[in-house]
Amino acid sequence: MADIRVALLRGINVGRAKRVAMADLRALVEGLGYGEVRTLLNSGNVVFSVPKTVRGDPAPRIEKAIGSKLGVSSRVTVMTADEIAAAVDDNPLHKTADNPSRLLVMVLADAAVGTRLKVLAKAPWTPEALAIRKRVAYLWCPHGIIDSRLMLAVSRLVGEHGTARNMATMTKLRDLTRDS
Question: Most buried of 40, 51, 78, 178 (most Cβ within 10 A)?
Fold first, then answer.
């Protein structure tokens, strides 16, 4: 079975400054030796397989290549197919969050970032909600993400060490990894 991974690029195709054609992004990832490269949507989500001959963490390799070959700076976080599936299937807010476009999954660069978020978990956010797991944080923003106090607080604390996708996108990524 192939080692399937998902690269989540922070800030790609948000605004005008960081526009990258998904065809260029696919070609870049393929050029690094990864296989079965597919993108989801036009927002910097890349599903790919890692051949046994390619060693090391894909995140810094992809991040460096994006900067040098596409001229764009973007943090890259890579998750395994199992981590993506767990983020979707083990959602602790599934009973509360009834709109997948308003439930964010903040993918954290490492567990230390999640530890910093525990302070926020103690604060009252109603009607919003926060749940933290080892590699992800779940943010329920029922009135939208743009005006969310919770999203603002989490973003300030996480900074460049995480990137968020809504649950609808995470579910599509999970399904795409299963199709590999």
Answer: 78
Tell me the domains of the chain and their CATH numbers: 3-82 (3.30.70.1280), 85-167 (3.30.70)
The CA-atom distances, in angstroms, between 94 and each of 38, 76, 89, 145, 167 are 28, 27, 9, 18, 10
What phi, psi does 19 have (nearest 5°)? -80, 130
Regarding pTM above 0.90, the answer is yes
What's the chain's Rg over C-alpha atoms?
Answer: 16
Q: Are 4 and 47 in contact (CB under 8 A)?
A: yes
Would you state the torsion angle of the CA atoms of residues 146, 135, 62, 173, taken in this order, to the nearest 10 degrees? -70
Kindly state the DSSP code that residue 94 receives in the 8-state scheme.
T
